[in-house]
Specification:
heterotrimer, A alpha/beta, B alpha/beta, C alpha+beta, B: alpha/beta, four-stranded parallel sheet, 13 helices, C: alpha+beta, five-stranded mixed sheet, two-stranded antiparallel sheet, 44% helix, 12% strand
Chain lengths: 539, 293, 319
């Protein structure tokens, strides 16, 4: 058994930041990640991270832009804390080694991005996320925090309503082990892999949300899923940073006509414009990066250039890039307050798997990375404090034996005509169709029915591979389970919100309804299924 | 065909058989050599760039004054010079800085027009293979030969094989073996490192590399190995017996320099090619060669 | 299109038993090797172990050899590999310990070596004073080096690793460069010292294979050479290498070219009897064949004084 004051689950930007902060606050920390930290999705974030560092900028202006992008659903106190702490965190990152782009005076260069009204986005070429992730990992290693890489968390240990740790399967040694901790921070990322195609990676399956949900935590605003407007639509979509639009790229329809000036629009509006252009006989839509110019493309968008070449065979200095809005990042997630606390004592959540009300109904471009470090630090500090104050509770070791039995139950050599891949494929397709960019009541009801039948099929499937070492069939099985659980929650929440706001668009309720719906949806796991709770007012 | 000849340090130091054989072969081929006498060692990858780049810039400037391209007989010289030349040509500001700070005192200036070519490249690119073939008097039939280029003659790409056409430089030695009438005993390590650069830092690894490449060559039936680099020769030949002692396995593979190999095919006697100087006996090769006639 | 994948298998639960499995299946015209592997695992053989993460070429996880050449499975398009026939062989990388099937030990291959170079910045100033002021040129170089996505191709192509797996390798040494050449790093001197230890920069043969293999043009070999040059200019701490380099530099400085006899002797060290004795057998043979340059009996080249001037100027500049 492993014992820590603070256990962090998830090795991306927010998890690493939380781990470092908890260590600095005096806690003993351990981190579990199902892939190596440098392989996590933080690497795909390209555009940059926001901070009100400019002379003409202020936390208030930053807050106003955040509210606007969030379509009036953000929680004020969370936004306030965020906009006040952002600069400090970004400077800390720079001092720890992030080689941000500089202006002529040698200061951090700030660029325009998305619907930010001021230039406030710090960036490192178009690999900001990846470089920030590396620096966080460097500092994480400096702290000598034990890191359990390629360990898959199978359950959270909850006793008497309190979270006492986790049980995880080590892929390399095939052993199930218990991780006892006073504070457990989930930083496990998004869940958009249940949209096919999407910008998700293979493992973006919402394991953390599913674990928290089944442990008693509530999932907030799950219907709010940010679609990214500029994605080259492969099965694992390749996104192009919106900074390209700010730099002069144009979105054109099939006839080559430019779609109305989209520069400076919030993401969901750009997505809708493209969506409508495609629907209204426009056919396919493309991104024209050529106006940016060869030199600037090479200088400022090297990663974009390389990936589109190797993955899509396109030369962005010459070719148009076919794009489509695809599901990108969840805005909703495990309900937490600004400090990262969930409704389950001992359980915290931060980053993309969490929802503290910062982003409301739409995330301002450039806020995600800043969010990861600002609240990553906060959650780490809170968790450390909680661990120091709490009394030691013994880990319910019987749960490990239970877990072994559970795993044994799902392993069986019997063959089936059905498969994980088939179920996943159907789920991915139905989610894009019925729980996509624009939803409708009937579509969502159908979706719920279809999800249920997929769940029934899933319950009949077994894992044929009896091995414990690098058994990816087993982990895929568990991941699909998470995805089915969350798909249902998303559809439920989307069905409940009878309005259109930010990332959630209802064809049957096209207007925003501030009277009834200036609030957050909440779903709990009760009696084996998702139950809508009374929405909580935003503000 | 006239070249500013840069023989390097080892061809008259640790491998004194190389210089005279190269000169004889060039003469036979009709390649005129104007030796650059008052120039310095390239640095061989040991001296740091802030010292070796000016030294090499000076060499290039001297050749430029003669209006001649440089010909080398050592892979390491070629590679180090090609890299320095690439830097000086790519960045005119850098070249200007080097000229101003190091060459101006002597009244020298490198304008960036010098070409550096190894004899191996000269044969294929300037001299012409047909012409070479017409001068072969003793096709080396029945001999199996392994090529060993020396890393510096193959990489880095921007300095050595900057175009698709010049990518062929990676197979010249393979081709030459066939052209001279011999059969190739190919080895997986022909483009890899012989280990010479790490002799002081890690002798064990250095000798392991010698054992690996010469061992593979022997296993593939080679009569000898040919290399265009005297530094590789120093390790592959000079330290072969120490490599045998380290691995406990006999190798006994003679190593020839490129000009010696060409010279034998042109009709020179093994003695004229100074084969007796080598550490690993070339006796068997000499007998075989003498039998062809 | 129908393709047969011939995949390397290793079973750690059966004493590391090796085998090869052949899978024939229909794949889409635009399928990648990773797409195909996922299909194999879902429909044919769920025991096949392979890694895949981002699926679109940026995370570096799915490295394997496709028909013998190392590359990412998620960007390897199947039609590119079936031009000579409908068979594709898949193997783990060279120079790596394999755990199971295509899953190899990234820790031993790379992560542990990176840890060994102390891969973090020790900041010079405090964040309290705002960001450090620095030119974009220095940061640009670092961004280039940090575009490394740990794909391992440089290590896979390395000449030294097959002979000595403990060599730190180009990936880890490039990471060391990132810290040694970051002007904001208080510990940059230490970084150089760490990689001067055995298995570090002096074990590199600078064959430039790494530069040829790197898919991002990071030029790992040049970074290692830069570390070596910095060590030379600030004082080499590896004793044997220091002797070698000092001797080389001294003879070129004094005479314009290399005195190999002197180099051989001084590299071992004039008082290192054991080392010098080691040279005797080869030296004796060389002497007999007229191949041994006598140390210190070395003529100066014409213009040796000009070469000396270059040394002096360069040394002055370094200060």
């Amino acid at each position: 058994m492993q014992e820590f004051d603070v256990l962090v689950i998830g090795g991306g930007a927010s998890g690493l930041r939380a781990a470092i902060a908890a260590k600095h606050a005096g806690a003993s920390v351990g981190l579990i990640s199902k892939v190596h930290p440098l392989r996590t999705n933080s690497a795909i974030a390209q555009g940059g991270l926001n901070a009100p560092l400019g002379k003409d900028d202020s936390p208030d202006s930053f807050a106003a832009d955040t509210f606007l992008a969030g379509d009036e659903l953000c929680n004020r106190d969370v936004v306030k804390e965020f906009t006040q702490e952002a600069s400090k965190e970004v400077i800390w990152l720079e001092r720890m080694g992030v080689p941000f782009n500089r202006d002529k005076e040698g200061r951090l260069d700030l660029r325009g991005f998305g619907s930010n009204s001021r230039n406030r986005t710090c960036y490192a070429d178009d690999r900001t996320g990846y470089i920030v992730l590396q620096v966080l990992h460097e500092q994480f290693q400096r702290e000598q925090i034990p890191s359990f890489e390629e360990w898959f968390v199978t359950s959270l240990a909850v006793e008497g309503g309190t979270c006492l740790g986790a049980i995880a399967l080590g892929l390399r040694n095939g052993k199930l082990d218990s991780f006892s901790a006073r504070s457990i921070i989930l930083a496990s990322g998004g869940f958009t892999r249940f949209y096919l195609p999407s910008t998700a990676s293979l493992g973006t399956t919402g394991d953390g949300q599913s674990l928290a949900y089944e442990a008693g935590a509530r999932l907030m605003d799950m219907e709010m899923i940010q679609f990214h407007p500029l994605v080259f639509p492969k099965k694992q979509g390749l996104l192009i940073t919106e900074a390209a639009l700010n730099a002069g790229a144009m979105i054109v329809n099939q006839k080559g006509e430019s779609i109305t000036d989209l520069k400076g629009m919030p993401r969901h509006k750009i997505c809708l414009s493209i969506h409508h252009a495609m629907q209204n006989g426009g056919g396919s839509v493309s991104l024209d990066l050529r106006p940016i110019g060869k030199e600037k493309l090479r200088g400022y968008f090297p990663q974009t250039q390389e990936l589109l070449r190797t993955v899509a065979g396109l030369d962005i200095t010459k070719d148009l890039v076919p794009i489509r809005p695809l599901a990108h990042r969840p805005i909703g997630g495990i309900e937490t307050n600004a400090a990262g606390e969930t409704s389950v004592p001992g359980l915290f959540a931060v980053g993309e798997c969490a929802c503290n009300g910062l982003n409301g109904a739409g995330r301002l471009a450039g806020n995600a990375l800043t969010e990861a470090v600002v609240f990553g630090r906060r959650a780490g500090e809170t968790a450390a404090k909680h661990a120091a104050a709490g009394s030691k509770k013994s880990f319910p070791t019987a749960k490990v034996a239970d877990e072994e039995k559970q795993l044994a139950r799902i392993i069986s050599a019997e063959s089936s005509k059905d498969s994980l891949g088939k179920i996943h494929s159907e789920l991915g397709h139905l989610m894009n169709e019925k729980v996509g960019l624009v939803r409708s009541g009937t579509g969502l009801q159908e979706a719920l029915g279809q999800i249920q039948s997929l769940k029934d099929r899933y319950s009949k499937l077994r894992v044929k591979n009896p091995s414990r070492i690098y058994n990816y069939e087993l982990t895929s099985y568990l991941e699909l389970g998470s995805m089915l659980t969350l798909a249902e929650v998303v559809a439920l929440a989307a069905q409940a919100r009878a309005e259109s706001r930010g990332a959630h668009q209802r064809a049957d309720f096209p207007e925003r309804d501030d009277t009834n719906w200036k609030s957050h949806t909440l779903v709990s796991f009760v009696g084996g299924s998702g139950q809508l709770q009374k929405p909580v007012a935003a503000g | 065909m006239k070249y500013a000849f840069y023989p390097g340090c080892v061809s008259r130091g640790g491998c004194p058989e190389l210089y005279p054989s190269a000169v004889k072969v060039a003469d036979k081929l009709g390649i005129e050599l104007d030796e650059l006498k008052s120039v310095g060692c390239t640095g061989a990858g040991v001296l740091p760039q802030n010292i070796s780049d000016p030294i090499n810039a000076r060499t290039f400037a001297k050749a430029e004054q003669l209006g001649l391209p440089i010909m080398t007989i050592c892979s390491t010289c070629t590679g180090v010079m090609a890299q320095a030349n690439y830097r000086l040509k790519e960045d005119p500001n850098y070249r200007e800085k080097v000229n101003k700070e190091f060459l101006a005192d002597e009244g020298l200036e490198y304008k960036g027009t010098t070409e550096v070519k190894h004899l191996l490249w000269v044969l294929f690119e300037d001299y012409g293979i047909e012409r070479l073939q017409s001068l072969i008097q003793r096709p080396l039939k029945g001999l199996k030969v392994s090529p060993f280029y020396g890393c510096y003659l193959r990489r880095p790409p921007e300095a050595i094989t900057p175009t698709k056409e010049l990518n062929r430089r990676k197979s010249y030695l393979d081709e030459l073996i066939g052209i001279l009438g011999a059969e190739m005993a190919d080895i997986s390590g022909k483009g890899k490192c012989c280990g010479f650069p790490i002799l002081s830092a890690n002798e064990e690894n250095s000798l392991a590399m010698v054992a690996k490449h010469t061992g593979e060559s022997k296993e593939n039936g080679a009569d000898f190995m040919v290399t265009p680099c005297p530094l590789c020769h120093l390790n592959l030949d000079g330290n072969q017996q120490r490599a045998e002692a380290q691995t406990g396995k006999e190798i006994d593979l003679p190593i020839l320099h490129l000009p010696q190999f060409v010279g034998l095919a042109l009709g020179f006697d093994p003695n004229e090619m100074n084969l007796k100087r080598h550490i690993v006996s070339t006796g068997d090769v000499e007998s075989k060669v003498n039998m062809i006639s | 299109m129908q393709v047969t994948f011939k995949v390397y298998r290793k079973d750690p639960e059966k004493d590391g038993k090796l085998s090869r499995s052949n899978y024939t299946l229909e794949v889409a015209e635009d399928a990648t090797v990773l797409d195909s592997l996922l299909k194999i695992r879902d429909e044919i053989d769920s025991t096949l172990a392979f890694r895949g993460c981002c699926g679109r070429g940026y995370c570096g996880e799915c490295m394997m050899r496709v028909n013998g050449s190392a590359r990412l499975a998620c960007t390897a398009k199947v039609p590119d590999y079936t031009k000579k026939g409908p068979e594709i062989s898949l193997d783990p990388l060279r120079n790596v310990p394999v755990i199971k099937d295509l899953v190899f030990d990234w820790d031993a291959f790379m992560w542990n070596k990176i840890k060994a170079v102390k891969p973090w910045l020790e900041p010079e100033g405090s964040p309290v004073n705002g960001e450090s002021l620095t030119s974009d040129a220095a940061m640009q170089d670092l961004r280039k080096v940090m575009s490394c996505f740990y794909c391992g191709m440089c290590d896979e192509g390395c000449t030294v690793l097959p002979v000595d797996f403990d060599f730190l390798g180009p990936a880890a040494l490039t990471k060391a460069y990132r810290f040694a050449f970051d002007p904001r790093n208080k510990g940059s001197r230490e970084q150089v010292k760490i990689v001067e230890k055995p298995k570090g920069i002096w074990d590199c043969v600078h064959c430039y294979e790494a530069d040829e293999h790197c898919p991002r043009g990071i030029e790992p070999t040049k970074r290692i050479v830069a570390l070596r040059d910095r060590a030379f200019n600030s004082g080499i701490t590896h004793e044997a290498v220091a002797r070698h380099h000092a001797s080389f530099a001294a003879s070129v400085k004094e005479s314009g070219w290399l005195d190999e006899g002197r180099l051989a002797v001084e590299s071992e060290g004039l008082t290192n009897v054991k080392g010098l004795m080691k040279l005797l057998p080869t030296a004796a043979k060389a002497l007999v064949r007229g191949k041994a340059p006598i140390p210190y009996m070395h003529s100066k080249r014409p213009d040796a004084d000009k070469i000396k001037k270059i040394f002096e100027k360069a040394e002055q500049e370094e200060k």
